[in-house]
């Protein structure tokens, strides 16, 4: 690659190496004009363009120029400062997108686990505000059924007949239902239901153990417990409310070439986060 194609910038002491074509995505911007030495804010020192601005925020500017997307971390909060930086560099389309802060901010995702223990069986129903999360969780949960002897919840199943997979009940895209435990069949034979939750490969029959593993799985996926309450004291239905922050939307910018004119840029606000 020739020296003309490689551009080095030092922004507030942070060094960036990129292509000239990347900086020329928007010809009217100050970054594009900088390459023609047409801006006094950018000093050429030892072959590097120096500018006294925030280097950390400039990393998001560079990411935008390279991908034509605005994708910010979940914990990002400096929207106004980044908008101000975009305006300084003459990237007014980016500044306009950043002004619509509500599209970029992460939003809380709610999940509710209802648990009911009735004699030798435990019933679970899970509701989620994001259908994608519920779908992902449903792929992790497997229910098996088979017959066994004895009345203990922890009776071994290895010597019994092969277990049969059972589908989860999915009343809608936003919830699922399953249960585990034992139910009397005939004589001393019991129909047993086991639950496995990936990546844990155990087959659990005890409802309390399944609840503990389910909550632990959700905690590892970024959820935290908000509250617990008794939905129905008569039916002994407990409700666990959990929450996590969804990743912010990723906004894509399309740059079109129109005949007889310079490139025209338009914001295409496409939310990457599904299940809303």
Automatic annotation (TrEMBL):
Pfam families for this protein: BTB_2
Matches recorded under SMART domains: BTB
InterPro entries xrefs: BTB/POZ_dom, SKP1/BTB/POZ_sf, T1-type_BTB
GO cellular component: endoplasmic reticulum
Domain of life: Eukaryota
Keywords: Ion channel, Ion transport, Transport
Gene Ontology BP annotations: monoatomic ion transmembrane transport; protein homooligomerization
BTB domain boundaries: 5-106
Protein name, per record: Potassium channel regulator
Species of provenance: Columba livia
């Amino acid at each position: 690659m020739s020296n003309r194609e490689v551009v080095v910038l030092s922004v507030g002491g942070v060094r960036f190496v990129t292509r000239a074509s990347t900086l020329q995505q928007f010809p009217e911007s100050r970054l594009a004009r900088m390459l023609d030495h047409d801006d006094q804010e950018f000093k050429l020192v030892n072959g590097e363009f120096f500018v006294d601005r925030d280097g950390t925020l400039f990393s998001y500017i560079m990411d935008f120029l390279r991908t034509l997307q605005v994708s910010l971390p979940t914990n990002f909060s400096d929207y106004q400062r980044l908008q101000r930086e975009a305006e300084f560099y003459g990237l007014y389309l980016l500044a306009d997108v950043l002004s619509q802060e509500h599209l970029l901010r992460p939003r809380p995702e709610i999940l509710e686990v209802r648990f009911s223990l009735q004699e030798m069986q435990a019933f679970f129903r899970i509701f989620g505000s994001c259908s994608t999360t519920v779908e992902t969780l449903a792929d992790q949960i497997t229910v098996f059924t088979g017959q066994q002897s004895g009345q203990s919840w922890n009776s071994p199943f290895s010597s019994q007949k092969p277990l049969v997979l059972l589908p989860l009940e999915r009343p809608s895209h936003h919830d699922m239902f399953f249960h585990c435990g034992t139910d009397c069949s005939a004589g001393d034979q019991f129909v047993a239901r086991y639950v496995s939750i990936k990546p844990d490969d155990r087959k659990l029959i005890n409802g309390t153990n399944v609840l503990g593993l389910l909550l632990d799985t959700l905690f590892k996926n970024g959820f935290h417990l908000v509250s617990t309450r008794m939905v129905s004291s008569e039916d002994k239905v407990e409700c666990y409310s959990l929450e996590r922050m969804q990743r912010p939307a990723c906004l894509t910018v399309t740059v079109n070439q129109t005949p007889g004119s310079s490139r025209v840029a338009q914001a295409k606000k496409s939310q990457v986060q599904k299940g809303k």
